[in-house]
Amino acid sequence: MTFKRELDDYIIEKLQNEPLYNECLLNDIKNFEVFPAIRNNEIHFYYKGGRLFKYTKNGFYTNIKYAFVCENYDRGDISEKTLGELNPIQNFIDGYENIKKCCATYNEKSEAYFVSTQFKHYSFLKDKTKDDIILLDIEAALESADEDKNLDRFDMVLLNKKTGVLKIVEAKLYENPELKQPKDKGKDPQVIDQITRYEDNIESKYFEILGAYHNYIKIINKLFGLELEKPTEINRRVGLFYFDFGEEHRKDAKFKFLEEKLNSKIKSVYSKGHPDREPADLKSCF
Description:
The protein is of the alpha/beta class. The protein contains 10 helices and 10 strands. It has one domain (9-79, 94-285). Strands 5, 6, 7, 8, 9 and 10 form a 6-stranded mixed beta sheet that branches.
């Protein structure tokens, strides 16, 4: 199957007339809390690590685990006697803030959550971002014709506005076992094979991916009134960004071994202890 980034004009026009979009989502997008990502005739809205909503020709959808909230919902304990006092939401607008709370709770401290902390620093909606690096897409899945095969999912797709270069970056929590040395000491950490596979996919689908992001730029320019230039090339080397560790980890011999191993096998590696506290230097991933 092909990698597509498309959104028909009538879907854009329909979205721009939706109350949920105008009254809720658009404000959070402009405040860099919600990230809009173009898919194949869908637009997905991400919040703190989860897909808050998706929009298709048939309207808005959210995950059922986020939707079971009440108008008078508050986090915490509830007694059996007061269950009858809860009023389930009747529409997404009334439940918007509580749906956001559920979305954040389910995805707290996930790898996607840490990626979401960079929305405000690298949003394509900002006139100036650090070193002109923008976060163009997240969780970009390369579809496979083999239904039994897991999809390769690019955590971050960055664009350098100065050079026109796209960069694919894999994001990992430091405690992710895919970063660790396997029990079989003769093998590399699993993430190295993953990065190699991603690079092979980029090579085989190079012009397909580049063309998809030409469409992507065209769509977000129209949707948000931007004037971004189309990317001119893709960096064929996939970057690795790992995070969520403290100074005590840096002193550990295992951490030093990991750094040496990853830097010897992967061309662009960047680490940040706590990217949720201060912006990551994503230019270092290029």
